[in-house]
């Protein structure tokens, strides 16, 4: 078995850098595992025990090896090659990171489930790879499945890529069938990297992760020159310099090496403690005699979606801050700043790349730090021009200007939806309801169609994906990318309890949806807020104009009424119990609102879309 002990500076002609792109669950990780096994990087015996159980191993080793990049030895016709397999994050929120990972490769294996065919993320990733001139190796996976239809889907794939159906390789990542041949084809088809060995060093960061024991581990691909340990390096976007503690390759554990040359992929450890100092897309060079021009394409991750996060129990606020700070060490895209809400108390306004990013973050905070959280309705970033020509960036409904507004701009996206043809009607209806505009429609095969829409991001982030899934019984897949901004008729709807606005419920919506949002919230709150000793009007308003109203009727609740004639200790107990309950109430003006009402009112579970069904 070939090994890499001390191997450094492999000649570029021997190197092949590739990634595997696929729709979720089409078998990327399983194929990666099989490659580790077939190339002998992981022993047969260790394979079963360790590599299929990635989470455990990650925990054990304390370093994320989730195939961020793995170096595999492979011989074709008697000559040795080094394959770097680079993993790409799968989801649309992390598109920028996917694109940087693709930039580190010359080729991509496009993996498609032979029982399902092309899905939205298959296409999104394929277009991104084609944009970067990567060589595409089309592969059908799961050919062992009884439901596999390789004939149909090779034709579909060939049609999209513009190759012959016979060029589409067939594998089973599960059984290993066809994987050796696939590796041979990677060597034959994917071009070797090119770069200038004598030039000042330039390497691109395509991923960086925080490791509790070692600090930030930065994954790089060297483009020109070489990176060697014990030299100081410079991050070109900030000019910050760092000492290099270790340079290495991953095969499959991190192994220190003497350096990385042109076309090589590996990792750096500098001892920095925060991934924001080692940003994806940045160029690394040597501090002395370094390069002057960075590689193209560095972009700061920009939050697209904002939401307030509040602890259900106000005393957890310091813990929430600590948990957010900890998460930020490993997530350069997460931003947060303290905010106070009259209704929810102290919390943080957080910025996310997208809704999935929000959900993952919230989930991790709750799971890893044991916090109970309320998140306010997510909103996108609006550009508002007031009547006196001032321009504001609004990331929070409470920052919406009070005076007259000249115009409002909101971000829009280009969406791709792939679905069986049976659902075209219902998808179109849904998209139109969300202010979508049809850009085009193509048939992938007789019974499957691709629909392209432009749609405001603000409409997608609520419950669009859930609505799409439930209307198509889970068959449709969605992908979207940002695509500039458009002017829209947007208004802020306030929800008032007894004439007082509850900031947590304010939302920025399209003028046409304002009435729907207002009535929905008012009805929900009437059901959720218990009756008080006085009448409580619930109103929805745009500025001072009320657009919906509900009323909670008054009651006089005498908890002791039932205890007539009972003994005094029982009465005391009841009063104590009532006092406990009150602690969990939030006072909005004179109205007592149970914490659960906020949680329930802010959840989108009962959105209008679902109610319709
Ligand atoms: N029958 C069969 N099942 C497979 C094959 N390859 C993968 N699977 C199964 O498909 C499911 C998804 O596989 P993964 O490798 O986790 O897919 P993935 O694309 O990495 O998914 P994410 O990591 O969630 O994006 C798993 O249950 C695998 O066991 C195959 O060749 N045949």
Gist of the model:
With 613 residues, the chain is α+β, with helices and mostly antiparallel strands.
Indicate the topology:
Layout: E1 15-22, H1 28-38, H2 44-51, H3 54-61, E2 69-76, E3 79-86, H4 95-103, E4 107-113, H5 120-131, E5 135-141, H6 150-161, E6 169-170, H7 179-189, E7 202-211, E8 215-224, E9 232-235, E10 241-243, E11 246-250, E12 254-256, E13 265-269, E14 283-286, E15 305-311, H8 317-328, E16 335-341, E17 345-352, H9 355-369, E18 373-375, E19 379-380, E20 382-386, E21 391-394, E22 405-420, H10 424-433, E23 437-445, E24 448-456, H11 457-471, E25 477-487, E26 490-497, E27 500-501, E28 507-510, H12 511-528, E29 536-542, E30 545-552, H13 568-583, E31 585-588, E32 591-594, H14 595-602, H15 608-611
Parallel strand pairs: 1-3, 1-4, 4-5, 5-6
Antiparallel strand pairs: 2-3, 7-8, 7-14, 8-13, 9-10, 9-14, 11-12, 11-13, 15-17, 15-18, 15-19, 16-17, 20-21, 20-22, 22-24, 22-25, 23-24, 26-27, 26-28, 26-29, 29-30, 31-32
The chain binds guanosine-5'-triphosphate (GTP).
* Strands, count: 32
Provide the residue-averaged pLDDT.
Answer: 84
Main sheet overview: 8 strands, antiparallel
Task: Supply the helix-strand structural class.
Answer: alpha+beta
What distance lies between the first and last C-alpha atoms, to the nearest angstrom? 59 Å
Question: How much strand content do the residues show?
Answer: 25-35%
Q: Cα-atom Rg, whole angstroms? A: 28 Å
**Low-confidence segments:** 1-7, 52-67, 605-613
- What ligands are attached or bound here? guanosine-5'-triphosphate
Strand order of the largest sheet: 10-9-14-7-8-13-11-12
- What's the shape? globular
Please estimate the helix content. 25-40%
Number of helices: 15
